[in-house]
Write a structure and sequence with these properties.
- This protein has 114 residues and is an all-beta fold.
- It contains no helices and eleven strands.
- Strands 2, 4, 5, 6, 9, 10 and 11 form a seven-stranded mixed beta sheet that branches. Strands 1-3-8-7 form a four-stranded antiparallel beta sheet, with no helix packed on it.
- Strand 7 and strand 8 form a beta hairpin.
Length: 114
């Protein structure tokens, strides 16, 4: 049974940091690209960052220099380190695994507010 479980969201002040985790099970994690998406209220879901099975990375322009995606294949876990957070980063953050199949997590809420 495939599972992606996100954690690490919460309320943070502008300028603060959070680290999101995505724990995977039920598939060959190391063979899949891992992606982080976010969806703000009233907006479409957008790709924030991605990391390939070989470690190559992609970032949306809006988060370049502030977010870092990484993966630990030994722990079957992907991470999104977010720093210098802005109110416009407020959204539900989802991880997605893409490879032979496509799997989504349930999301974790991030609220950036003073």
């Amino acid at each position: 049974q495939v599972q992606l479980v996100e954690s690490g969201g919460g309320l943070v002040q502008p300028g603060g940091s959070l680290r999101l985790s995505c724990a995977a099970s039920g598939f060959t994690f190391s063979s899949y690209a891992m992606n982080w998406y976010r969806q703000a209220p009233g907006k479409e879901r957008e790709l924030v960052a991605a990391i390939g099975s070989g470690g190559s990375t992609y970032y949306a322009d809006s988060v370049k220099g502030r977010f870092t995606i990484s993966r630990d294949n030994a722990k079957n876990t992907a991470y999104l380190r977010m720093s210098s957070l802005k109110p416009e980063d407020t959204a539900v953050y989802y991880c997605k695994a893409s490879g032979r199949g496509v799997y989504w997590g349930q999301g974790t809420q991030v609220i950036v507010s003073s």
